[in-house]
Structure formats: structure tokens, C-alpha cells
Design a protein that fits this description.
about 500 residues; Aminopeptidase; binds zinc ion; Leucine Aminopeptidase, subunit E, domain 1
Length: about 500
């Protein structure tokens, strides 16, 4: 894909697709385009769209809701919707005019154009490599006309669009990790993908089964026992030159469960193939690290991804078995399908040992999260109000919906074990996401600000919520939020 910049006046041309916003219903862009043809907005609709094509050129008009403050995220959604139109019309070069983006209440022209382009680029994703005859990906050519914009603003626009290119590449990277099936995305392959990210400031270390055992990661090891695939513990440390030698890292932890059959407490067969997505927390964290590297952020960040399969082999953990986590706490496994918390526990203990300034973990952890918030919001749990505020601010910047959920001592007491210190299943029905977060919290050192983000509802199949997601498949959720969190720390 390429973005070129033109300071000349805005003209169409063969094989080009012009894009025009029409807020006031006055556009008459060419003889074949008339805003009268734009469908009327229905209730709650943000925009309606109308395109016409003739003589190798095409134009899309978009009518916007009146009297609305548009956020950058609204523009991403508009850009995502427009992408489908662009593809439908088989256009080649897309022409964008900065002037068209000067009509948005609440968002500057540069931010509006960036949001639009980001939504457009985020949409340009499809997993092709699993098919024997993969079609070659068409390149996107975008021509941005900046006529009337001051040179300093043009520079600003260019750097923001460059950022959006990196954002979309990192999100696509994470989506691909999520979409590849279990046999093509094992813990070893996931580790290789983490290692494929190149930056002089990044060091990737991968622990194998022997090392995991030696490091007393009893949760991760225990879950891996039912599988012939080796578990991996992936450590990605990003520390650019110029930081203090003793800087304290932000630690991101992501669940990398590459296929979850549920173990002996086996899941129902229907849609079990979707359990390839149980590593999407790990994918988000790896994608965020790629973006942090590509954007050369000045921050010390460590990502930890405990990775394994959860299967039913002869040595698999059985209900009632007791595992010992890295910090010595014992856990009785009442349901082998509540395995995410077992592998995250060891990673959280390790994160605390690294002297983390703060720890953010994410996982496709609980079905209860989907019941509570569906696929529109990622729920997060923290006891730290300051951290919650930071996450809320991040949510506004990234445009990803993050919603704070309760986490209290009641939830902790629900996770006490009968025989061991803890149980991996709550003793009381309901609030399954909060009790899971309460369990995880038991493995983080007191005084370290900690938040857990449950992406069970938002990691895949969320295209109805955001136009720029693929119609099915992984979303790459949280790549943008983790990046913005670190960038604005
Ligand atoms: Zn499970």
C-alpha cells in the first residue's frame, strides 16, 4: 500500500475513486453524482452512502448525521464502511481531499482524515495463506490532497498517517495469529512469530518445557500435560537506548492458549474450532509490542505470553488435581476448562518479580464476560482507581470500548479452595469474570497496580460492532489500546 501527497487542486481521473462527505446535502460533484441520490438517514444511523461509477472513475458520497460531534473512532467506522464500497467498485487509487474532512464538529481535519484512513486500512485484511491458491493481495493506493493546508500541518498529517499504517499492520499481525488454526499456530509457532519482530531495542526469550518446569511454573506446566505440543513461555523485553538503567517496566501479560478443547472437562463440539482464538490475549500483546517497536516508543515494556494447548491426553490434569503455582500457592483444578487463569497465574508472579511498575493482563478468559458485555465492550477489573482512570482515558484515545467491572473481596472469597489454597472455579454462581479476575489478583504482588482485561467477547466475531473488523475472525482488539496506554504513560 502507498500513500502519496499532492498539494495540487483536487481532480478526478481514470481509475480513480473520489470520496466526498456531504454534510449539508449540497454536493454536485460531477454530472453523474447528485446528493439527492444519497439514501435518507434512518434512526441512529451515523451516515448513509451512495456511489456511482462510469468511464473508469467512481465517486462515493456520504451523508452524515447532522448536529453530531464526531470522534476519531466514528471516522474509523466510516472509513471501514467506505472500504467495502471501494472494493465493490473495484477502484484503484483513492483520492482524499483534506477539505472534505474540515466539516466535523469535535474533530480536527487532520484527526478526522487519520481516523478515516485508519479505519480503511484496518479493513484491508484477509487470511489468505491457508488456501492452496492464495490470490495476490491488491495494493491500496491513496492520494491525499492537501491544498490549502500549511506546511507544518502537512508534516503533522504525514506523520499521523504513517502511524496509522503501523497501527493497521500490527493489528493485522495480531489478527493473523488469531485466525490461523490450532495446528498452524502452536505454542512453538506463536513463539517464532514473536521472535520475528525485529527491533534493536527488543529482546525475545522463549522458555521450553524443561525450563518452565525448572522455573516452577506449575500452572502452565499442569495445563500443558494433556498435549503433545511443548508449552512455551515467551518473554519480550523492549528497552530502547536512553532510558534509565534502572527503569521499571510496564508489564503486559497475554494468554496464549493456542487451542482449548477444555481438557478432561471437555467443551461441547459445536463451534469448538473457535477455540483457536483462545490465544488472542497473547496475540494482542505481541501485536502491541510490534507496534511499540515500529513506532520506537520511549518506554520500558515487557510482554509475557504463557502458551500451551489444553487437550485431553493420557497425562492431562484431572478435575480435583492440585497444581502449585510459581509463588507456592496451591490450586485445585475443579474444572480443567478454567485453564487460562492457571497459566496466567505463573506469568503474573513472574511479572511481579520483574519489578513491574504496573501490570496489565488480557485473555479470552470467561464466557461470563460475553454474557455481561456482549461483543461491544472489553471488561476490565482493577482495584486501583488511578489505573482505572488511565485505562478509561486510553479507551477514548484508542477508540476501543473498555468498561470497568467490579472486583471486591467477595469475589476473592468465592475462589478459596476446599483442600488447596485456591480453587480455579468459584464456589458461588454468577460473576464468573469478576471471580476469575479475583483469582488472578492473588498472584500479583500487593502494591503493584494491576488490571485485567477480559476480551472473551471482543477478540473475534465483532464485525457487527465495528465496520473495520473482518466479517468473521480475530479482531486484534487491544493492540491499539496497549500501544496508546504505553505511548501516553
Ligand atoms: Zn478453557
Amino acid at each position: 500500500m502507498s500513500i502519496t501527497y499532492k498539494s495540487t487542486a483536487f481532480k478526478g481521473g481514470k481509475d480513480k475513486h473520489t470520496f466526498v462527505f456531504d454534510l449539508k446535502n449540497t454536493a454536485k460533484n460531477s454530472s453523474k453524482m447528485d446528493s439527492k441520490n444519497i439514501p435518507k438517514l434512518k434512526n441512529n444511523e451515523l451516515f448513509s452512502i451512495y456511489s456511482a461509477a462510469a468511464d473508469g472513475t467512481s465517486t462515493t458520497l456520504m451523508k452524515l448525521k447532522d448536529n453530531k460531534n464526531f470522534s476519531k473512532e466514528d471516522l474509523r467506522v466510516i472509513g471501514g464502511r467506505f472500504y467495502k464500497e471501494y472494493k465493490r467498485l473495484k477502484s484503484k487509487t483513492l483520492l482524499l481531499n483534506i477539505k472534505d474532512f474540515q466539516i466535523f464538529n469535535g474533530t480536527s481535519d487532520i484527526d478526522a482524515l487519520q481516523g478515516f484512513v485508519e479505519g480503511f486500512l484496518l479493513s484491508d485484511y484477509k487470511l489468505q495463506e491457508v488456501k492452496s491458491s492464495a490470490t495476490k493481495k491488491e495494493t491500496l493506493d491513496i492520494e491525499v490532497h492537501t491544498s490549502g493546508l500549511k506546511p507544518a500541518k502537512v508534516t503533522e498529517l504525514k506523520s499521523q498517517l504513517k502511524e496509522s499504517e503501523h497501527v493497521s499492520q500490527a493489528v493485522h499481525f495480531a489478527r493473523r495469529l488469531g485466525d490461523l488454526p490450532g495446528n498452524m499456530m502452536t505454542p512453538s509457532i506463536l513463539a517464532k512469530n514473536a521472535e520475528s519482530i525485529k527491533s534493536p531495542a527488543l529482546k525475545v526469550t522463549v522458555w521450553n518445557k524443561t525450563k518452565i518446569k525448572k522455573e516452577k511454573m506449575g500452572g502452565l506446566l499442569g495445563v500443558s500435560l494433556g498435549s503433545a505440543e511443548e508449552p512455551k513461555f515467551i518473554i519480550m523485553e523492549y528497552k530502547p537506548k536512553g532510558l534509565k538503567a534502572k527503569s521499571t517496566p510496564t508489564v503486559l501479560v497475554g494468554k496464549g492458549l493456542t487451542f482449548d478443547a477444555g481438557g478432561i472437562s471437555i467443551k461441547p463440539s459445536a463451534k469448538m474450532d473457535e477455540m483457536r482464538y483462545d490465544m488472542c490475549g497473547g496475540a494482542s500483546v505481541i501485536g502491541a509490542m510490534k507496534l511499540i517497536c515500529d513506532m520506537k516508543l520511549k518506554a520500558h515494556v515487557i510482554a509475557l505470553i504463557p502458551s500451551t494447548e489444553n487437550l485431553l491426553g493420557a497425562s492431562a490434569v484431572k478435575p480435583g488435581d492440585v497444581l502449585t503455582a510459581r509463588n507456592g500457592k496451591t490450586i485445585e483444578v475443579l474444572n480443567t476448562d478454567a485453564e487460562g487463569r492457571l497459566i496466567l497465574a505463573d506469568a503474573l508472579v513472574y511479572a511481579s518479580e520483574l519489578g513491574a511498575k504496573e501490570i496489565l493482563s488480557t485473555a479470552t478468559l470467561t464466557g461470563a464476560m460475553v454474557v455481561a458485555l456482549g461483543n461491544s465492550h472489553t471488561g476490565f477489573f482493577t482495584r486501583d482507581d488511578k489505573l482505572a482512570e488511565k485505562i478509561n482515558e486510553t479507551s477514548i484515545i484508542s477508540g476501543e470500548n473498555l468498561w470497568r467491572m467490579p472486583l471486591t473481596d467477595d469475589h476473592v472469597s468465592d475462589m478459596q479452595g476446599s483442600y488447596a489454597d485456591l480453587s480455579n472455579l468459584a464456589s458461588f454462581r454468577g460473576a464468573g469474570s469478576a471471580t476469575a479476575a479475583a483469582f488472578l489478583e492473588q498472584f500479583v504482588l500487593k502494591d503493584v497496580p494491576y488490571a485485567h482485561l477480559d476480551i472473551a467477547g471482543t477478540a473475534w466475531n465483532a464485525s457487527k460492532r465495528k465496520s473495520y473488523h473482518a466479517s468473521n475472525g480475530a479482531t486484534g482488539v487491544l493492540v491499539r489500546s496497549f500501544y496508546e496506554y504505553v505511548k501516553n504513560a
